[in-house]
Fold this protein.
Amino acid sequence: MKESKVYDCTMIALDTHHSRKGNLSVVSNGREVPFDIRRVYYSYDIPGGQARGAHAHKQLYQLLIAASGSFTVTLDDGSVRRTFLLNHPYEGLLIVPGIWRVLDDFSSGAICLCLASETYDKEDYIRDYDEFIQYKHGQ
Ligand code: TYD
């Protein structure tokens, strides 16, 4: 999506249930996320100081959740940057297609859970920032 903006990306409060036994948060297709979930993956054991991401997707929608610990996500639409702190397992960051993202400042033990709208397709990635800018602003 060439026209997407960082303002199309939002923090979403998940359906969360608290009890004496602890907490539970739910994500359902079409409710908390505006897409059908076709893939789930998670990153963990991320060394201190390491950055992840540094790419954009052409078609993929994602919801990122700090299932444990915390990290920051910087979104970039080629014109505007917004940085989000993910540090609660009861909320998720919706990232629409056409947004460059960098994840960093991972705490010890952080788990980045990703719910994605498509199965893995390396052709959907833009991994070069200049190419991303060309994609967003080019003819
Ligand atoms: P990568 O996209 O570089 O991770 P990050 O964006 O978190 O920095 O993915 C790391 C490796 O995992 C890379 O070799 C591609 C592979 N991979 C899959 O095979 N399937 C997947 O669904 C994902 C997300 C990654």
Observations:
- Residues 129-137 form the longest helix (9 residues).
- Helices lie at 129-137.
- The chain has one helix and twelve strands.
- The CA atoms of residues 42 and 113 lie 4 Å apart.
